[in-house]
Amino acid sequence: MCRCVPSTFINIHFQYIFFRQVDVIEGCRLPVLRKNQENEDEWPLAEILSVKEIPGRKLYYVHYIDFNKRLDEWVTPERLDMKKLQFPKKEAKTPTKNGLPGSRPSSPEREVPQAQQKCLPTKTSIPDFQVLQQQVQPPTITVHLCFDFLSPLFKSSQNGTARRPMPNQPGRKRKQPPNCGGTDEDSQDSSDGIPSAPRMTGSLVSDRSHDDIVTRMKNIDCIELGRHRLKPWYFSPYPQELTTLPILYLCEFCLKYLKSLKCLQRHLTKCNLRHPPGNEIYRKGTISFFEIDGRKNKTYSQNLCLLAKCFLDHKTLYYDTDPFLFYVMTEYDSKGFHIVGYFSKEKESTEDYNVACILTLPPYQRRGYGKLLIEFSYELSKVEGKTGTPEKPLSDLGLLSYRSYWSQTILEILMDLKPDNGERPQITINEISEITSVKKEDVISTLQYLNLINYYKGQYILTLSEDIVEGHERAMQKRHLPIDPKCLHFTPKDWSKRGKW
């Protein structure tokens, strides 16, 4: 005898079995519950990068789509929205030409109309600053400065000769006067044009060609450095046996990594360092800078790079530190000189780089130390009699810090200009570059970013609005840590005459 089962029970039972049988695998995408900056729940789309089983349940390592990788994390199944699960798409099979035996034959190619077979010249995208350098600032043109904030000349066309903006060039976008706010990392800090082959020397170099599922995942849970515990943002190639530890212990003076607190305590009884190795070349108050040669202090330099890689995503670590100098900023107290941040630079740079990598450790961020590192790098360039620029690409936080520093430095010069004989003050791009040691391309890109350059009556002028001036004055009031050139004791070396560094 057949019994009737209510349809609602069948549906519920079917859904239960369906969800029990679905396995979330690597590559799947689905919404994942997380807290935003306002501590509110949100369900952004995320990709499953890895799955692991611990006693009693599974954990999923997720990357939130369109979010920075430092937000990647392990989550429990309860935070997954299984109703919107997307399985990874199968890769399209590519035809094999001249393949090995057993390979699939290539599909016949379609005939292409004769008109489409002509080779068209490819256009290489030109960064904004190159366009300005080539077309906006010819060598013979002097850039004038206009302080007429309220003049109708630049606000309306009552005189019949209203201001017209610089003609838009290919690859350029006109921007509104910025507030030096945050920008998305993926859209702003990568270099334009065709990516070059990775450079195989140096400590931390730009390279995205070795990304795989291993390097996309954080491998260190926590680092104890002195009195701070740091949560790494990205992968760093520490020895494999250390990646399973709940806490990785570092000596804050020599940066040696150890697997337990007892090992650290034993190490501290033997470690005589109370400051980074190398020469102290700057001290004012509690802030000091130490210059470290990557060849003479190779172990320290490599340990520094391993630590830095935990917080720098756009760099790949190589162990050849010989061609580099490291400048470590410290904060002094009765226990010693504690590392705050650092930057590295090549001993010989053919591209005028004065910074290769730059980092402020997370406990010291948002306290002005990042700009202090940047300012110090340009002070060294001034002593060397060179202009410099940071190696690209910059991280999102690095880009914001550099834009802010360039803006404040250039605006400070422009606002200090005095008119000559009743005429408008004038200055050239080259003069700004020589005064600040900021490379000419960075000066031009900053003026463009601030929307200061305008074309009027056959010449290029810089127009400062009230908003720009007020914003600059507010920023300068918050700047509590300027570099004092009198406290710098630095003698540049000619590394080209020193053979192998």
Tally of structural domains: 3
Given the helix and strand composition, which structural class is it? alpha+beta
Distance between the termini: 93 Å
The CATH class name of the largest domain reads Alpha Beta
Poorly predicted regions are 7-20, 96-142, 146-203, 205-210
Question: What general form does the structure show?
Answer: globular
**Biggest beta sheet summary:** 5 strands, antiparallel
Q: Assign the CATH architecture of the largest domain.
A: 3-Layer(aba) Sandwich
* Percentage of β-strand residues: 15-25%
InterPro entries: Acyl_CoA_acyltransferase, Chromo-like_dom_sf, Chromo/chromo_shadow_dom, HAT_MYST-type, MYST_HAT, Tudor-knot, WH-like_DNA-bd_sf, Zf-MYST
Biased composition (Basic and acidic residues): 85-94
Active site: 391
Family: Belongs to the MYST (SAS/MOZ) family.
Structure description:
- Belongs to the MYST (SAS/MOZ) family.
- GO terms for molecular function: chromatin binding; histone H4K16 acetyltransferase activity; zinc ion binding.
- With 501 residues, the chain is α+β, with helices and mostly antiparallel strands.
- It has three domains: 23-84, SH3 type barrels; 128-182 and 406-464, no CATH class; 199-393 and 482-497, Gcn5-related N-acetyltransferase (GNAT) (Aminopeptidase, 3-Layer(aba) Sandwich), CATH 3.40.630.30.
- The protein is built from ten helices and 23 strands.
- A five-stranded antiparallel β-sheet has the order 13-14-16-17-19, sandwiched between helices. It has a four-stranded antiparallel β-sheet with strand order 1-4-5-6, with no helix packed on it. Strands 21-7-23-22 form a four-stranded mixed β-sheet.
- α7 (396-415) packs across α9 (440-449).
- The longest helix is centred in the C-terminal third of the chain and has 20 residues, at 396-415.
